[in-house]
Amino acid sequence: MKKAALPKPKNIPRKSLEAAITAIENAKKPVLFIGGGVIHSGASEWMREVATQSQIPVVSSLMGIGAFDQTNPLYLGMVGMHGTYAANKAVHQCDLLICVGVRFSDRVTGQSCLISILLRKKTSIRSFPPDKATIKPF
Description:
36% of the residues lie in helices and 12% in strands. The protein has 138 residues and is α/β, with parallel strands linked by helices.
């Protein structure tokens, strides 16, 4: 898998960033799960670039629709109870779910089923705090 050019991190421990990069590089079936935070932070173009360069399939939350070109073959649709079969299947079968700008509402996770899937697969759950400089008021 081709390495994407990542921006210089702010407030993310280098060790955590390196672990995330290693997990992405070693994943056989990664999926990018993008949400409204991608749009709100102005990172849509960067996210499209990352997905295109890495050829990682993309699913979105309801609030993330529009962050990625829906005509792009990498886009599988919205995930969750009102999402597409392809998006939900990809999330269920992935070995690494890369979540960017999302909240885990019950409409996406089906209560705690997503966390259950991640724990069953012994997946590491890492959370990085948002960069306060990128948060814009509504």
